[in-house]
Specification:
Length: 417
Amino acid sequence: MNNIETFERLESNVRMYCRDLPLVFDTAQGSKIRGEDGREYLDFFAGAGALNYGHNDPRMRDALIAYLSANGVTHALDLHTTTKRQFLESLERDLFKPRGWDYKVQFTGPTGADAVEAALKLARKATGRSKIVSFYGAYHGMTAGALAVTGNRTRRGPGLSTDVVFVPYEDSPYGAFDSIGFLERLANDQGSGSELPAAVIVESVQIQAGVYPASNQWLQALRQWTRAHGVLLICDEIQAGCGRTGDFFGFERSGVVPDLITCAKSIGGYGLPMAIVLIGAGLDVWEPGDHIGTFRGNQLAFLTAQIALGYWRDEQFLKLLAANCAAMERAVAGYAEIPGVASARCRGMIAGIDFGRSNVALAKDAQQRVLQAGVLVDRCGPNGEIIKLMPPVNTPTEQLEQGLKAFGEAVAAALGQ
Ligand SMILES: Cc1ncc(COP(=O)(O)O)c(C=O)c1O
């Protein structure tokens, strides 16, 4: 029995995910989450990418308990703390050094949207320009600046910045587009009506748009174009980052090095709020206090984030991740063959099962059947016509395969197979 009466009576109409997944959850461990009625589900929703390492990772949980029991500092604004030092050192050791990267780390407010706000502000400050190029289908958050670079008209409202040029992404529900050719024209054609932008903001996989991964060549060409015109490249890795694509960041396979990287959701490792901007060499033009906020840097997340980053040195974790990416790709290739599925796309541990633009009701029905089969999934795409599969990246492979099988059967049932 899931009694949702209290939520319906007291919580704002703005709530969203709980409408498609109308359960009351209680406990969770790894890739499993339990409803208060005692039923267990495989969580292939994973906090929309905030739980890439699963629920209540025992090492992180034990470290948190020990830290709290020892009266470790839990809030410190941006004062120096031992946990922050350890986190910065682990970013340097586990992420920057192996890649030869030189970034400064900015702690923003704990949402992805605030990291995007900071990156846009910094790009404008560093270049003295105001325009930003973003892509059709992009999702960057809900605050005014972040929403201004978000493409979905159903999410945008009046009064947003018009200093944004939207360009179709490499691929989309409306087909492929020569985005780089368009940008060339924008820069070179005196009649384009647009001055050069401060930055291009891009997702290496457009996940909310329906799971459209950018090709390496496209990202490389984008990097070349931005460099040639003195435009900054911001990679928004808030959802595609932290292992979701099989690499730490989704753009890494292209060899591109962005000027600014926004990262949130799973960077804390445990589902605890934290967001950062990685700022390329020479671009840290902030004056002290230029972008502040009370909750910048979460001490508990610093602690769990170091453990999460440590997994990227752990052979067992890396082997499991590779095996899981292969299992996802195999399963998704199978879903594409189900009659009635329009297409299915996958990049590492993120997949989109596309029911076609006019088939939102079918996608909704399939999502409910998948839920009845014991697997939580979310929908994405312009109108919610695409089911998004994003299991924790370290799900035991057997559990992953079990969930993927149940998913395929429920989708086939929804499509009357
Ligand atoms: C690519 C991307 N950027 C930014 C955001 C905004 O993050 P938050 O919801 O934490 O504000 C999201 C959230 O889904 C996202 O997927």
